[in-house]
Amino acid sequence: MNLREELDRRHADGLLRRRLTLEGAQGPHVRVAGRDYLAFASNDYLGLANHPALAEAVAQGAQRYGVGAGASHLIVGHGRAHDTLEQELADFVGLPRALLFSTGYMANLGVVSALVGRHDEVFADKLNHASLNDAVVLSRARMRRYPHGDVRILGRLLAESAAPRKLVVTDGVFSMDGDVAPLKELLALCERHGAFLLVDDAHGFGVLGARGRGILSHFALASPSIIYMATLGKAIGVAGAFVAGHPDCVEILIQRARPYVYTTAFPPLLAAAVSASLAIVQEDEWRRDHLATLIRRLRQGLASGRWRLSPSTTPIQPLLVGGNQEALDLSEALRAQGLLVPAIRPPTVPRDSARLRISLSAAHTLKDIERLVDVLCALS
Length: 380
Prior knowledge:
Layout: H1 3-12, E1 29-32, E2 35-39, H2 52-65, H3 73-77, H4 80-93, E3 97-101, H5 104-115, E4 121-125, H6 130-139, E5 142-146, H7 151-160, E6 166-171, H8 183-193, E7 195-200, H9 215-219, E8 226-231, E9 241-245, H10 247-256, H11 258-261, H12 268-283, H13 285-301, E10 308-309, E11 316-322, H14 324-336, E12 339-340, E13 343-344, E14 354-359, H15 366-379
Parallel strand pairs: 2-12, 4-5, 4-6, 6-7, 7-8
Antiparallel strand pairs: 1-2, 3-9, 8-9, 10-11, 11-14, 13-14
Helix pairs in contact: 2-12, 4-12, 5-6, 5-10, 7-8, 13-15
């Protein structure tokens, strides 16, 4: 099959992806192709991506540090802004040490490929983010996938394993379902069977836990077996990611994580912006309180509609539609009414589970939620 035939097939199957081009800043109200929309599509959960304090921090950071880091962290690209932010992040999540990465995808690739290899085993939830799956392939370890959230089967797989090193990998908040991993049970299994637990908290960091400290705070978990990853471009509103954990684990990553070793360092001006954002995340409890109110109102409003919301208490509210074309048609019908809600289709989600991924932000208002509910109810 040539490339054109492959593209035509994806189009026929309702799987062809297309980009939208925003004509301004990220936020609940965006402009695309000359038209204004109310958007429920971004991961800007706390409404910080366009916060003036972050913009000011970037400007001051550029004046002090310049724009680019100029080299990898292990040459001369690691600066005071990086060092300060890594300590702030470690303190924030209650772990001994943290390490910055350019993206969450690179962080997951780096952690897994640095810690396990050909003779080891990785145990992965079937609904994990693609970056975790790709990381296992890159590591060449054996991947054992367990049904979503099924700690019983995971326990059996761990008990059967004779691998020299075992690693359990899981999303904290699952990016397309919005549900939360059973971390207490997962950690207990890891400690019982001598396995590490890598938690990808991309969608929980800043939202869950005391003062937004993430899923470990949410469950009050602490263990040297935990390796914690979170991104800085979602609730934090900036870019990048970090990994935190035991000092020896972080040191191994500095030595062996190829996406860290062989990448130009995270821009120091962005480190300054993340520091500014962390202060807001901790101080503005109203943002998380408001999010919780919006979530409750959306779920109440759509409780008796044609399409079912997945059981999620997070800002990710998936509206299950089923077929690819039906999900695309519903997304287009909303767009015609001035609402942007993306259709998510396989392979991002399992077959026959296409959905609208409604993403809520503290920057939304109750009036915004009412409008979305009213239009969806009218379309049903």
